[in-house]
Amino acid sequence: MTEKVAYLDSSAIIKRYVLEAGSEFIREQYNEAYLGNIMLSFNIWNIGEVIGVFDRAHRQKRITGEQLDEVMGRFSNETARLKKISRIRIITLSESLMESSWDIVIKHHIYVADALQIVSAIEVGCNEFYTGDEKLHKLALSSGLNSTYLG
Q1: Which of 56, 115, 138, 140 is the most exposed place for a label (fewest CB within 10 A)?
Q2: In 3-state terms, the chain is what percent helix, strand and coil (to 5)?
Q3: Contact (CB, 8 A) for 6 and 130
Q4: pLDDT exceeding 90 applies to what percent of the chain?
Q5: How many angstroms separate the CA atoms of 104 and 69, rounded?
């Protein structure tokens, strides 16, 4: 039996740490990972994007410095814990992955980070692709991925 792999784009990861539409669904996915029922996956690029979102919230004074430290700690600790129990696959940024993403950028006129999500999800052989970005969701579907739009 093939293991279920759920690929999370940055907007889906953020839903784990910020209460918004789709947060409950992502919480369930993380719980399933802890139970050993699924493998979560994302690209190393996502880590930088998630940190950038947390930092922007702090710079815009939507969260305090203490809240920034708390959310950064939760994200870091949880990612490390999932790695330790082999329930997360973080895709490295390789030359071949970048080159594959460029074709998607040119063909669909999208940001390279979004193209990286598509090629990374394909690379890891995900069964599910989760995103809060409607345009990325539609592109994922047209790329043959089983995508769920989280709002």
Answers
A1: 56
A2: 60, 15, 25
A3: yes
A4: 97
A5: 36
Strand spans (E) along the chain: 5-8, 39-43, 88-91, 128-131, 147-149
pLDDT digits (tens, 9 = 90+) for 120-143: 999 999 999 999 999 999 999 999
Query: How many degrees, rounded to 5, is the angle at CA 28 between CA 57 and CA 47?
Result: 40
9 in Cβ contact with 136 (< 8 Å): yes
Choose among 150, 56, 143, 54: nearest CA to 100: 143
Beta bridge partners of 4: none
pLDDT, position 33: 97
Give the closest residue to 9 by CA, choosing from 105, 148, 107. 148
Q: Are 102 and 112 in contact (CB under 8 A)?
A: yes
Judged against a pLDDT cut of 50, whether residue 66 lies above it is answered with yes
Helix (H, G, I), strand (E, B) or coil at 41: strand
Instruction: Give yes or no for residue 1 having a pLDDT over 60.
Output: no
Could you tell me the two tokens for 2? 């093939």
Q: How far apart are CA 78 and CA 126, in angstroms?
A: 21
Q: What percent of the chain stands above pLDDT 70? A: 99
* pTM score, whole prediction: 0.92
